[in-house]
Amino acid sequence: MPIQYNFDLKNANTLGLPAVASHFLPLTDPAQLFELCQNPGLKALPWRVLGGGSNLVLPEQINALVIAVALKGRRLLREDDEAWYVAAAGGESWHEFVAWTLAQGWAGLENLSLIPGTVGAAPVQNIGAYGVEVKDCLYELTAYSLADGHARVFSAAECQFAYRDSCFKQAEAGKWLIGEVVFKLSKSASIKTNYGDIGQELAALGLPLSASAVAQAVINVRQRKLPDPAVIGNAGSFFKNPVVTAELRGQVLAAHPELVSYPAGPDHYKLAAGWLIERAGWKGRQLGPAGMYQKQALVLVNHGGATQNDIASLTAAVQADVKEKFDVELEAEPVWW
Ligand code: EPU
């Protein structure tokens, strides 16, 4: 087994944090897990699964076996009157997979264009953008047990998807490696253009309405608003949009009539965390080498040289200010190792 020691992960996390893994293995075949599970030395270590590293806050030293999912492949499994069933391996790039489905003429994932990361990581936090979440098209997935390597198929219902959440962040956290995901891409999928700037961007593009045109509009909007991790380290939205009671939303609204919020189930509202952070004075503001992005206050950026401690200090400072000013608790979205 080609284990590597003291492996540098700085280029393997989009925040660009300095991090070294004591043990590292690129997994190219799920059968490798069986072998790993029979190695007592490796079994004694904690295990961590690494995808595209775009939703992670890494410490400088990681005393663990880091398994980088390098499983590749994508194919049409079957087709019926209703849908195409398309499988992709966990290590495929999410954006390349989406672009490939669109090139085949299969619509459904276009609103999720240009999201960094891998196919296998997408269900873990139920990635979402512009009115669509991955759960809307996910049929089932195959995961491999980190305890003994056995395969288990999870139906979409078993994944327990919620806003930026699934069982893989809750009860099943740390127990599975997602090897393959099957998507059900409906033949009668309707194009969703009603979120924010997408309709406007489509009109500006002047293209006939199609899934590929929506993808192009999404790409343009994301490139305008969100920093490119290759240029400035970031992990996308750093906090979840908080879901609060109608009562708390009413209190904030009374003091700030311009509050941005959306209904989120009976008696609850989702507040725009970017708005709260901006109004708390953090848009474009730095604390040490990390800061909140100038064009989108919800995105935390590494201006160069930040460590996990710097990110933790900034996270705590933003959370404390938003709590003090609005009495709202912000929850960080990425996974911390
Ligand atoms: N807003 C501000 N100030 C800011 C940022 C936003 O006032 O600095 C306001 C905007 O004016 C708008 C509202 O907040 O009225 C929502 O902003 P935006 O449309 O940019 O979306 P978001 O709620 O900030 C969410 C997702 C993004 C996703 C976009 C588009 C979360 C945590 N984030 O952001 O996802 O791309 O919607 O659907 O739900 C990600 O998860 O990494 C991510 C980028």
From TrEMBL:
Its main location: cytoplasm. The keyword Flavoprotein applies. Pathway: Cell wall biogenesis; peptidoglycan biosynthesis. It is found in: Cytoplasm. It catalyses: UDP-N-acetyl-alpha-D-muramate + NADP(+) = UDP-N-acetyl-3-O-(1-carboxyvinyl)-alpha-D-glucosamine + NADPH + H(+). It holds the Pfam family FAD_binding_4. InterPro entries: FAD-bd_PCMH (IPR016166), FAD-bd_PCMH-like_sf (IPR036318), FAD-bd_PCMH_sub1 (IPR016167), FAD-bd_PCMH_sub2 (IPR016169), MurB (IPR003170), MurB_C (IPR011601), MurB_C_sf (IPR036635), Oxid_FAD_bind_N (IPR006094). It comes from the Bacteria. One of its GO terms (molecular function) is UDP-N-acetylmuramate dehydrogenase activity. PROSITE patterns: FAD_PCMH. SUPFAM superfamilies: FAD-binding/transporter-associated domain-like, Uridine diphospho-N-Acetylenolpyruvylglucosamine reductase, MurB, C-terminal domain. Its EC number is 1.3.1.98. It is an enzyme of class 1 (oxidoreductase). Keywords: Cell cycle, Cell division, Cell shape, Cell wall biogenesis/degradation, Cytoplasm, FAD, Flavoprotein, NADP, Oxidoreductase, Peptidoglycan synthesis. Gene3D superfamilies: 3.30.465.10, UDP-N-acetylenolpyruvoylglucosamine reductase, C-terminal domain, Uridine Diphospho-n-acetylenolpyruvylglucosamine Reductase, domain 2. Residues 15-188 form the FAD-binding PCMH-type domain. The active site is at 164, 237 (proton donor), 333. The keyword Flavoprotein applies. Its cofactor is FAD. Belongs to the MurB family. Cell wall formation. This is UDP-N-acetylenolpyruvoylglucosamine reductase. The gene is murB.
